[in-house]
């Protein structure tokens, strides 16, 4: 069983039973996705496309249904012409199907025209070829509520781990929960796990995702010790919430570790970026560790079938334009790489400058960095720890994750 088949099997559901089918008329371009919360952005893109004589449609599904739909489509050899996906191992898995079109020539044209830096294409490369266009290139940062910081007597965001811990203590003393964190939609369990690992040992994070480090090894144990201690001190909100962005907007916690794609969703909850909340890159636990930041890049891919359709390739060329990016990314508050497009909000601009000035190393998000067959059950273990953050549960989680990972890596030899 190759990587493609194994990876898709890890997210297996029966798409036929869900009644999903990649139907699209010949004269329109339909993009399938699992991001209905960006509907305003998709609507803006649809309207802008009309001005370019492109009949554009979007079709949204819940994430589990969407993964099942794409899996079934690829296995049957009938992939949709255009759809969103994930980068890293997730992208490599579907590229191995042989049904995803390389977009090297399109990117060469855009880079030569000065619209993009070559670095914007890097997250979408598999075996040296580019297989996606960005819907977002997002850093994972800490958003902070300025009024709650002021209430607790905190004048500026922390720049060291000790300052971060002191900030948490001041917030607690003022009756404010420091961090917002939940299991919303079932996948968020890895967020703090990956963040603490890169902030204590980024090389160990890379080794873990490559099968060169065990989930029972010391670097992972240290993560669970720190994570458990933060829970013991009462620094987190109830993980059962299904309204994570709204919880932060409502002031249920002062800080929120999240992809910067959440900025627009927080604004939809009533806070204004920069005025009501700001952002900072979480400081390292170990001050000797180089500057690092998690980067999540979400591609829009074109299938081989789509690449053979002139209407689809006309859309792809237009999609990478500043006009398209302004229509799409501004409303959700996303940065998607086009140098001529608007910067969606001041927080993203400031974080980009911080990352550049500090020579931050980009680390691929755990969801995309590690194989699907490990990630999905491992996240369930992390979720269980968040609901029962004890030493015993941590030991169980590490043991179970290592059993999953060791079996996977053994099958690859």
UniProtKB/TrEMBL annotation:
Any single Gene Ontology cellular-component annotation: periplasmic space
Keyword hit for Signal: yes
Signal peptide limits: 1-26
Coarse class of the protein's main subcellular location: periplasm
Keywords: Periplasm, Signal
Pfam families: SBP_bac_8 (PF13416)
Origin: domain of life: Bacteria
Record's subcellular location: Periplasm
InterPro entries per UniProt: Bact_solute-bd_prot1 (IPR050490), SBP (IPR006059)
Family membership: Belongs to the bacterial solute-binding protein 1 family.
PANTHER family, A to Z: ARABINOSE-BINDING PROTEIN-RELATED, BLR3389 PROTEIN
Protein name from the UniProt record: Extracellular solute-binding protein
Native organism taxonomy: Bacteria, Pseudomonadati, Pseudomonadota, Alphaproteobacteria, Hyphomicrobiales
